[in-house]
Design a protein that fits this description.
This protein is α+β, with helices and mostly antiparallel strands and 724 residues long. Helices cover 31% and strands 20% of the residues. It folds into four domains: 141 residues, no CATH class; 160 residues, no CATH class; 209 residues, no CATH class; 125 residues, Up-down Bundle (Methane Monooxygenase Hydroxylase, Chain G, domain 1). The protein is globular and about 115 Å long.
Length: 724
C-alpha cells in the first residue's frame, strides 16, 4: 500500500509546534523515520522569484528515487515545484512524495506513473490531514517504442537509447543531462521513452530527477537533469558522462540500445546484467560496441568491431565437441603425472616441494631514488593476507568556519564571488586494526580538527571505533596492538595510492589552522603523500604524521573554475548552499541592526515587545554572526521570537487608545517588515546549512604503506567526506 507526504510552508504543521516549512499531510501511521527521510529530499531552488515575469519558468522536479528505509530500498516518486509566496510573504514550494510498495509497482515504469493525473498533488488547500491510505496506484504496461521525443529535441532518437543504457549500467557515478528551460516540459516524456526500452522487470531500477539540486548522497538517483547556466550544470559538463541538450552532439558508435531507440531493432530480448561505464547490454545476436558520443567538433571514429568466425554446422559441432572432451581429459592426466614426478624428484633431492618454500631470505628489492617510481608488488585482492587488515575508513574533511565568517563580514550579495578557493581541512587518526577483511563496512576512526592538540584520549573531538565496553585486559591488548602497528607503520619507506609505489618523501614542517572559529594554529612534522588520487580535487594535499599515526588533508574548491571536479555530484549543490548560508547570515545581522534602530523610535509599549530581538543585536556584528553560525542548524528559537513579536505588535496596534504619529508609524511598519524578513532568512539559513552539513563523499583507491623490500605493511581503503 502506498503512503504519501506533503511538505510546504504553513503557519501550523501536523507536528505539534511546527510552522514554516513543515509537513502538512501524511498517511496515517507513517513512522517518524520515514517522515524525516521524505522531508530530507524536499529541497528546491527558485531560479526566479515569485514577482518575476519569468516565475512560471521555475522548473518542476519530477523524480523517481530510491531511499533506504528500514534497511530496504524503497521507490519514491516525487513532485516539487515553486508555490508562490507563503503566509509571511516569502517564497514557497510544494513537495509531494509517494512511497510505493514493491507489490504495486506498475510494469510501465516510474515515468509513466508520474504522468497519471490521479497520483501526484499540485495543490494544498490549507488543512493539515492524515488520510488513511496513499493515492491509488494504477496498473499499466507499455511496449518498447521509438524515442520520438528525443528525436524532436536532439534530432536523433538514439539519445533515448544512450539514457536507457545508462539506466541499465551498474555504475556508481551519476549520468547528467543539461537542458534548456524551453525543454523542461518534455523531460518526463523523454524519460518514459528511455525506460520503455528496458525489460519490464528492470524499469523500476531506473532512477532520475528532472531538477537535481541538493540530492542527498545516500539517495539512489542515476540520471540527474539540471537547467543550463546553474552551478550543477557547470559541474556536470566538467565531470564527464553528460548529455548537453543545448549543444550539438553526435553518437559515433551505436549500441543496440541506440538502435532500438531509433526503431532499427525490435523485440524485448535485452539481457540486463552488470556493465561498466557506458557499455551497452547486448542481445544474444550481433554483438556491437557500447554507445560512444561526442560534440560535433570532437567527433572521432573508433576501430571497427572484430569479425567473428562463422558458426559450425550442428553435426560438425557435435563431433568436434566429443573430440575436444577427450583431448582435454588427456591433457589433464598428463599434467597430473608430470606434477607427481616433479614433487617426487624434489622430495628425494631434499628440496622443498615448491620453489621459494625454503627459509632462504629473498633478495632485497632495489629502492628507487627520491621521486622515482618503482613497480608495486602484486597483492591479490582475493588472496588471504591475514597480516594486512582492511576496512573502509571515513575521512571527514570540514569547511573552514573562519573563512565563512570573513566572507559574511564583507556583506556578500548575489553578485559577490565565493571565496576562491573554499578551504576544507581534516585529520584522521588511524586505528590500530581495521578488523576482518570480509566485513567491508565503513568505520569511523578517530577524527579531529587539524589543530595542535595532544594525542591524549580526550584531546580528539571524535567518533572512535572502540571496544564497546570490553574488559581492561582487552583494552590493554588493543593498546599493545596499536603500538605494534604504529611501530610497523613507522618503517614504511614506500607508498602507493592506486598506482606504482614511490619513495615516501622526507618529513617537512606544515603550519595548519583549526577549521573552528577558534584561532588555533599548530606546526606538524609530516610526510607529504605524493600522487593524490585523481578522484579528489587537484588542490587536495594529504600528509601522514608518524608521531600521532594520523592523516591530514587540506583541500580547496573553486566551483567557478572551468574543469573543476570533486568526484561527486553533490558538490555542485554545495556551492549554492554555501552562498545562501553566507547571504542569510549577512542579512540577519543587518536586520537585527535595523530593528535596533526602529526600536528607538517606537513607543515604550512596542519597545518592550521587540526587546528580545534587539538584545541579540546588541552584542556587536561579528559576535552576532558567530552566534548565528553556531546555531545555524536549528533556527527555531529565532523564528519563533520573530513571529511572536510580529503578532504582539499587531495586537498592540489594535489595542492602542490613540493613533501613532507619522514617524512612529513608519518605524512600526519597518519593524514588522524586519521581523518577517528575519523569519524568511532564518529558514533559508537553516535549510541551506543542512546541505553543507550533509556534504558529499568521494571514494578513493586504497592507500598502501610498504617497507623497503616492497612488502605491504598497511592498506587503507578511504572514503573522504567533505562537509561542515
Amino acid at each position: 500500500m502506498s503512503t504519501e507526504l506533503l511538505y510546504t510552508s504553513a503557519p501550523k504543521g501536523l507536528r505539534h509546534g511546527s510552522r514554516g516549512f513543515c509537513t502538512v499531510l501524511t498517511t496515517s501511521g507513517m513512522p517518524i523515520n520515514v517522515i524525516g527521510k521524505l522531508e530530507s529530499i524536499s529541497g528546491y531552488r527558485h531560479l526566479f522569484p515569485p514577482d518575476s515575469p519569468r516565475a512560471g519558468e521555475n522548473p518542476v522536479t519530477q523524480a523517481h528515487q530510491r531511499v533506504s528505509l528500514g534497511g530496504q530500498l524503497v521507490s519514491v516518486i516525487s513532485r516539487i515545484a515553486a508555490y508562490g509566496t507563503d503566509y509571511s510573504g516569502r517564497t514557497n514550494k510544494l513537495a509531494h512524495h509517494v512511497a510505493l510498495d514493491a507489490s504495486e509497482l506498475p510494469q510501465a515504469g516510474p515515468a509513466w506513473l508520474l504522468q497519471q493525473p490521479t497520483v501526484m498533488r499540485s495543490q494544498w488547500y490549507g488543512q493539515c490531514e492524515t488520510p488513511p491510505t496513499g493515492p491509488s496506484i494504477p496498473r499499466g504496461d507499455q511496449p518498447p517504442r521509438i524515442c520520438s521525443s528525443w528525436k524532436s529535441v536532439t534530432g536523433d532518437a538514439g539519445w533515448g537509447g544512450v539514457v536507457a543504457e545508462a539506466f541499465a549500467a551498474d555504475a556508481g557515478q551519476p549520468f547528467w543531462i543539461v537542458y534548456s528551460l524551453d525543454h523542461q516540459d518534455r523531460l518526463l516524456e523523454m524519460m518514459d521513452e528511455s525506460i520503455s526500452l528496458l525489460p519490464p522487470s528492470q524499469r523500476w531500477r531506473a532512477t532520475f530527477n528532472t531538477f537535481a539540486v541538493n540530492v542527498p548522497p545516500d539517495v539512489d538517483c542515476r540520471v540527474r537533469m539540471v537547467p543550463a547556466g546553474t552551478e550543477e550544470a557547470r559541474f556536470a559538463t566538467s565531470a564527464g558522462k553528460c548529455v548537453d541538450l543545448t549543444r550539438t552532439q553526435s553518437i559515433t558508435t551505436a549500441s543496440q540500445w541506440v538502435e532500438r531507440a531509433r526503431g532499427k531493432l525490435r523485440g524485448d530480448g535485452v539481457s540486463v546484467g552488470t556493465s561498466t561505464g557506458f557499455s551497452a547490454v547486448q542481445d544474444p545476436v550481433d554483438s556491437e560496441g557500447a554507445s560512444v558520443w561526442s560534440s560535433s567538433e570532437e567527433s572521432a571514429s573508433g576501430p571497427p568491431p572484430t569479425p567473428q568466425p562463422p558458426a559450425l554446422p550442428d553435426q560438425l559441432r557435435k563431433h568436434s565437441g566429443g573430440r575436444l572432451w577427450w583431448s582435454s581429459l588427456a591433457v589433464i592426466v598428463a599434467l597430473l603425472m608430470l606434477s607427481g614426478i616433479w614433487c617426487l624428484s624434489r622430495y628425494w633431492a631434499g628440496l622443498p616441494l615448491l620453489p621459494g618454500g625454503a627459509s632462504k631470505p629473498a633478495a632485497p628489492l632495489a629502492v628507487a631514488p627520491p621521486d622515482a617510481s618503482v613497480t608495486e608488488p602484486v597483492v591479490s585482492e582475493t588472496e588471504e593476507q591475514p597480516t594486512v587488515p582492511t576496512q573502509r575508513l571515513e575521512f571527514p574533511v570540514r569547511y573552514d568556519q573562519k573563512q565563512m565568517l570573513g566572507w559574511v563580514l564583507g556583506n556578500p550579495d548575489a553578485e559577490t564571488p565565493l571565496p576562491s578557493p573554499i578551504s576544507l581541512r581534516g585529520r584522521l587518526n588511524l586505528p590500530s586494526t581495521l578488523g576482518p577483511r570480509e566485513s567491508g563496512e565503513t568505520v569511523q576512526a578517530s577524527v579531529a580538527d587539524p589543530s595542535p592538540v595532544s594525542n591524549a584520549p580526550g584531546a580528539l573531538n571524535s567518533a572512535t571505533a572502540s571496544d564497546g565496553g570490553q574488559a581492561s585486559s582487552d583494552r590493554e591488548n588493543a593498546r599493545r596492538d596499536s603500538a605494534a602497528t604504529t611501530e610497523s607503520a613507522f618503517k614504511a619507506t614506500l607508498i602507493a595510492w592506486g598506482g606504482k609505489a614511490v619513495r615516501l618523501p622526507p618529513a617537512e614542517s606544515v603550519r595548519i589552522e583549526s577549521t573552528s572559529l577558534a584561532n588555533i594554529v599548530g606546526t606538524f612534522q609530516v610526510h607529504p603523500i605524493p600522487d593524490v588520487d585523481p578522484a579528489l580535487s587537484a588542490s587536495t594535499r594529504v600528509y601522514w604524521r608518524p608521531e600521532g599515526d594520523d592523516l591530514i588533508a587540506i583541500s580547496g574548491f573553486d566551483w567557478h573554475a572551468d574543469g573543476n571536479s570533486s568526484g561527486d555530484a553533490a558538490s555542485g549543490g554545495q556551492a549554492a548552499a554555501y552562498r545562501t548560508v553566507g547571504q542569510s547570515l549577512a542579512n540577519l545581522s543587518a536586520l537585527f541592526a535595523s530593528l535596533q534602530q526602529q526600536s528607538a523610535e517606537l513607543p515604550s509599549s512596542f519597545r518592550s515587545i521587540v526587546a528580545p530581538l534587539v538584545l541579540r543585536g546588541n552584542r556587536g556584528r561579528e559576535s552576532l554572526v558567530r552566534s548565528l553560525l553556531r546555531s545555524a542548524d536549528d533556527m527555531d528559537e529565532i523564528i519563533d521570537e520573530a513571529m511572536a513579536v510580529t503578532d504582539q505588535m499587531q495586537a498592540e496596534v489594535a489595542g492602542q487608545a490613540g493613533p501613532l504619529n507619522k514617524s512612529q508609524q513608519d518605524a512600526l511598519l519597518r519593524a514588522v517588515s524586519d521581523c518577517e524578513r528575519i523569519v524568511r532568512s532564518a529558514q533559508e539559513l537553516e535549510e541551506s546549512f543542512h546541505v553543507l552539513q550533509q556534504g558529499w563523499t568521494v571514494d578513493v583507491a586504497d592507500l598502501r604503506f610498504q617497507d623497503s623490500d616492497g612488502d605491504l605493511i598497511r592498506r587503507l581503503p578511504l572514503r573522504f567526506h567533505f562537509s561542515w
